[in-house]
């Protein structure tokens, strides 16, 4: 085991040059030897203090192969006069297989200083060669990330017989990218037989990159491909590994990015896998592996060979900052690297003392203990290394797992015998060593009906369906166990699933260091399934494929107590709601008859599940015992329900506990189920509409009233009391309903189409009030009743209204002209004819369970009839009243009732007509009148009645003249000092005589 110690001090003089230690594979932890690498201390030529020898250690990995150790801080001193200049060029040392210097070996005597110390930092004067390095059978390569102003470069030396060819990456003047920070060399990367150098540049464009270099002309390494990094600062390319992951003959590329992070996913570090596509790589990785936050996952990578001998190369990933440090082992397959680690090894699990930064460096691929399995060497910063040795991997062969008989007939089973389970195992070593005959012990577990509770079988000698046994190899070959069938098994359609799993029963071991053989501590091949199962079919009458295809069909109907189906409306049965409805009956018929040659087979565990709504309560079933009542009604139809079998009619009776007026429908779901195969099984809805029809009637005491108009025209503004309007009218309506109280579900209304005015806008019939049940009043919205707020009569006694409507007492018959009256005329006013305008108003029927009376009182508008219908002897006015239901519940219905009412308003206006008198009476009357007139004239003449009096001449006279008033304002605009009294001039004249 070669270990670098870059800060180790020289034991003699204490110079801290670094060192390389060789540790044998032994039980001791303190037997590592410091290699004696001859390093000359010449301060005037080179500085070896802190040159970090051992920063890179490599071997040729072949018999008699050489080893390599580098010190990337090795510094050359250049003198310019008295001034010394230092050039940190780095240096590597090659030693033989015996770890000693062989002066006859050109590999070892070659100086291995590729950088020119005579140049400055813009060239190779600070190249730090040896930061990465390695070699194969004829190639040695170095990484120098400090060359060309820290652009970096790579050196490749190839020896062919006696010739030495060296190649390097030229100066591209892209400083600070660190090309050569990590490097790998291999064939079958870009070309099958050509060597390709893969180098990492972790600071390339701040995201990092991996360059694939090929040898070109003029001893240069040319860039053939560049794979960019995914994230700024991720240090993509700081660790590299080449391995044929899918065993296709091409080397795949694994790249570490230890500082990659995803904050939300708590990712810290990533490994990117690029699968080789016959010499080409995609720019995007085929797989990305990530580690936990702050773990440095991907800080170190190593191709560790085929550690489980499955034919595919495996990978180790170091995460040195995850706790004490961890190493993840990933296996590969034909699809490439697997997504999940096969094993995670923590530094806290190794030895009595915990190791810090475990996984800081990795090296693998060599079999150190000779058991044909490659081992893994892990470094740390705790001055400890750990060799993880691979344990032998065994493959379980000939896993015989059988049950006889393969089909079980319950009728043939006894309490002691039924089925026999046989297990047989054998094994071999995955490395193919035929001499490997270690004694191993398997612990196996048999479990029947794992997913069923309770199971249908048990093992002999126990009441459990699980059995655990021990199987030792190579002595034992087979074992058998009896499996018994339980009584009253219902499910005979589905097979009994018997599963078996096994594990390796490891031997107890204590912690021990050293080369102790691991042959006695094998592990099972994790790529093999450690579980197996078999199915035990039941003997049943089904098709050749052992699958039963049933054809269960269901029909249902709601019936009466006498098994008569309820009526249907639009295909749905309807229940007429009543408080007397206490029970509902559902009739169900089920068949299993074939309709095609492939269905109608036995229906195993045929069940009918009836889901009942809260409004119903299942109470009984006919035939008795066919169903059980719980949260649902469960009816067992048969196990199996045979082909062409018909279930006699099932009638389930329900208590109607929750059917109310607002119940629109009753929905019962019928769900057929069977363990047999039937894809068209769907729940069937047995739906019953609940219809509530209210029985009602509307009548009017007298649909035809008689009234009159007479008198004189009175204006609307002059009317103060209702009797000022005109003659009274009263319409009495009787409403009868039978049924339940609707509550908030609806309202029964009595609506009126009332003729309130004629087309020109004059009042016709003036509604004054609506009396309900004699005392209460109805006030429809809109103010249509008594809109003028007239004072109503307080006495509403029927006798008073009848007296007002009585015609006047009969008297002497009127005198008529000899020519006779004109013919009787009539006018008809109605809303339908457009001769009257109507208003619609409604009154609710509040007491639906008792008869209700409505009295609509009104007045004939006398003035309108006098003005507009004087020429008519009778005016007929009509209107309507309608009883109807207003509800948002569609199942509550009521037939509308409409009555028509009318009033005949007769004219009682008196018209004077000339009388018919005899002629002689007329002549005598005229003569008598003339004689009387003559006598009167004679008498007046005797009394000087006709003598005119000169009154004007005898009447005293008074004459006065008014003097005009003075002007109130003077010309100067000022008021006079005082007003003088005005004088009147009068003259009196009186005659001597007054007659």
- Helix count equals 6
In CATH terms, the superfamily of the domain at 701-792 and 825-907 is ntegrin, alpha v. Chain A, domain 4
Q: Tell me the structural class.
A: mainly beta
Provide mean pLDDT, rounded.
87
Query: Which blocks of ≥5 consecutive residues have pLDDT under 50?
Result: 797-823
Helix content: under 10%
Largest sheet: 12 strands, mixed
Strand content: 35-45%
CATH architecture of the domain at 701-792 and 825-907: Sandwich
**Euclidean distance between termini CA atoms:** 183 Å
* CATH topology descriptor of the domain at 701-792 and 825-907: Immunoglobulin-like
The coarse silhouette is elongated
State the CATH class of the domain at 701-792 and 825-907: Mainly Beta
Number of strands: 64
Radius of gyration: 62 Å
Your description of this structure?
It is a single chain. By secondary structure, this protein is mainly beta. Among the domains are: 393-507 and 517-538, Sandwich (Immunoglobulin-like), CATH 2.60.40.1460; 552-693, ntegrin, alpha v. Chain A, domain 3 (Immunoglobulin-like), CATH 2.60.40.1510; 701-792 and 825-907, Immunoglobulin-like (Sandwich), CATH 2.60.40; 957-989, no CATH class. It is built from 6 helices and 64 strands. The strands form 15 sheets. Strands 42, 43, 45, 47, 48, 50, 51, 53, 55, 56, 59 and 61 form a 12-stranded mixed beta sheet that branches. Strand 23 (314-319) and strand 24 (326-330) form a beta hairpin. The longest helix has 24 residues, at 919-942. The radius of gyration is 62 Å and the shape is elongated. The N and C termini lie far apart (183 Å). The model is unreliable at 797-823 (pLDDT under 50).
């Amino acid at each position: 085991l070669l270990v670098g110690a870059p800060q180790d001090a020289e034991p003699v003089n204490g110079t801290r040059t670094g060192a390389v230690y060789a540790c044998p594979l032994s039980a001791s932890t303190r037997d590592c030897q410091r290699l004696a690498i001859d390093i000359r201390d010449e301060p005037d030529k080179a500085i070896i203090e802190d040159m970090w020898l051992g920063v890179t250690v490599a071997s040729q990995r072949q018999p008699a192969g050489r080893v390599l150790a580098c010190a990337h801080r090795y510094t050359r001193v250049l003198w310019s006069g008295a001034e010394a200049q230092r050039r940190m060029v780095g240096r590597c040392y090659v030693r033989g297989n015996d770890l000693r210097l062989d002066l006859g070996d050109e590999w070892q005597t070659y100086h291995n200083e590729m950088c020119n110390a005579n140049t400055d930092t813009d060239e190779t004067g600070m190249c730090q060669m040896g930061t990465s390095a390695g070699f194969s059978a004829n190639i040695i390569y170095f990484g120098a990330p400090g060359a060309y102003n820290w652009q970096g470069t790579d050196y490749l030396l190839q020896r062919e017989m006696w010739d030495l060819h060296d190649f390097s990456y030229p100066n591209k003047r892209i400083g600070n990218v660190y090309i050569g920070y990590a490097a790998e060399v291999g064939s079958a990367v870009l070309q099958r037989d050509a060597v390709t150098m893969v180098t990492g540049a972790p600071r390339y464009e701040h995201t990092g990159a991996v360059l694939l270099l090929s040898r070109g002309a003029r001893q240069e390494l040319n860039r053939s491909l560049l794979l960019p990094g995914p994230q700024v600062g991720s240090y993509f390319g700081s660790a590299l590994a080449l391995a044929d992951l899918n065993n296709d003959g091409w080397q795949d590329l694994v790249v570490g990015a230890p500082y990659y992070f995803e904050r939300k996913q708590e990712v810290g570090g990533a490994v990117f896998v690029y699968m080789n596509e016959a010499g080409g790589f995609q720019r995007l990785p085929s797989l990305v592996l990530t580690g936990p936050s702050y773990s440095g996952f991907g800080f170190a990578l190593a191709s560790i060979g085929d550690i489980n001998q499955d034919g595919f190369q495996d990978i180790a990933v170091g995460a040195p900052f995850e706790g004490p440090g961890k190493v993840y082992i990933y296996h590969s397959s034909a699809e490439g690297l697997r997504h999940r680690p096969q094993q995670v090894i923590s530094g806290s699990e190794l030895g009595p003392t915990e190791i810090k930064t475990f996984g800081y460096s990795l090296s693998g691929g060599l079999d150190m203990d000779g058991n044909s399995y490659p081992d893994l060497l892990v470094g740390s910063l705790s001055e400890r290394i750990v060799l993880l040795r691979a344990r032998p991997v065994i493959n379980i062969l000939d896993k015989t797992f059988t049950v006889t008989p393969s089909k079980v007939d319950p009728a043939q089973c006894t309490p002691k015998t039924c089925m026999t389970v046989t297990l047989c195992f054998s094994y071999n070593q995955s490395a193919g060593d035929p001499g490997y005959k270690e004694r191993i012990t398997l612990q196996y577990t048999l479990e029947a009906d794992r997913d069923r509770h309770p199971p249908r079988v048990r093992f002999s000698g126990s009441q459990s369906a699980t059995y655990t046994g021990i199987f030792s190899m190579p002595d034992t070959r087979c074992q058998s166990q009896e499996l018994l069938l339980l009584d009253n098994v219902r499910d005979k359609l589905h097979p009994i699933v018997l599963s078996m799993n096994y594990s390796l029963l490891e031997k107890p071991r204590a912690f021990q260091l050293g080369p102790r053989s691991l042959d006695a501590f094998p592990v099972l091949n994790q790529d093999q399934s450690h579980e197996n199962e078999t199915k035990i079919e039941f003997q049943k009458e089904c098709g050749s494929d052992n699958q039963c295809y049933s054809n269960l069909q269901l029909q249902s109907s709601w019936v009466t107590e006498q098994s008569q189906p309820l009526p249907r409306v639009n295909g749905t049965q309807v229940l007429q709601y009543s408080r007397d409805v206490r029970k509902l009956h559902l009739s169900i018929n089920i068949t299993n008859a074939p309709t095609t040659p492939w269905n109608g087979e036995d229906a195993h565990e045929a069940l009918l599940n009836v889901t009942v709504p809260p409004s119903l309560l299942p109470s009984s079933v006919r035939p008795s015992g066919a169903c059980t009542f719980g949260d649902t009604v469960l009816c067992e139809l048969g196990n199996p329900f045979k082909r062409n079998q018909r279930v006699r009619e099932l009638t389930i009776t329900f208590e109607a506990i929750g059917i109310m007026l607002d119940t629109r429908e009753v929905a019962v779901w019928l769900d057929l189920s069977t363990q047999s195969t039937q894809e068209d099984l769907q729940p069937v809805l047995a739906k019953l509409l609940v219809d509530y029809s209210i029985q009602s009637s509307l009548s009017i005491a007298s649909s035809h009233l008689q009234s009159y108009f007479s008198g004189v025209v009175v204006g609307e503004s002059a009317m103060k009391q209702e009797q000022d309007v005109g003659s009274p009218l009263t319409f009495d309506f009787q409403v009868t309903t039978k049924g339940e109280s609707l509550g908030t579900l609806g309202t029964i209304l009595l609506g009126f189409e009332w003729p309130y005015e004629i087309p020109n806008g004059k009042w016709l019939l003036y509604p004054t009030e609506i009396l309900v049940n004699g005392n209460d009043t109805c006030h429809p919205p809109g103010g249509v009743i008594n809109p003028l707020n007239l004072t109503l009569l307080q006495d509403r006694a029927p006798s008073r209204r009848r007296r007002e409507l009585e015609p006047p007492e009969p008297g002497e018959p009127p005198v008529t002209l000899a020519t006779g009256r004109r013919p009787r005329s009539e006018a008809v006013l109605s809303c339908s004819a457009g001769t009257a305008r109507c208003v619609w108003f409604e009154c609710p029927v509040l007491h639906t369970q008792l008869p209700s009376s409505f009295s609509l009182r009104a007045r004939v508008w006398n003035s309108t009839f006098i003005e507009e219908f004087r020429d008519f002897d009778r005016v007929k006015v009509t209107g309507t009243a309608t009883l109807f239901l207003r509800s948002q519940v569609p199942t509550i219905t009521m037939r509308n009732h409409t009555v028509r009412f009318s009033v005949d308003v007769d004219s009682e206006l008196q018209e004077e007509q000339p009388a018919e008198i005899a002629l002689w009476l007329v002549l005598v009357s005229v003569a008598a009148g003339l004689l009387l007139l003559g006598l009167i004239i004679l008498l007046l003449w005797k009394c000087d009645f006709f003598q005119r009096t000169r009154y004007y001449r005898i009447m005293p006279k008074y004459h006065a003249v008014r003097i005009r008033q003075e002007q109130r304002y003077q010309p100067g605009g000022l008021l006079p000092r005082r007003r003088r009294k005005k004088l009147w001039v009068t003259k009196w004249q009186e005659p001597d005589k007054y007659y």
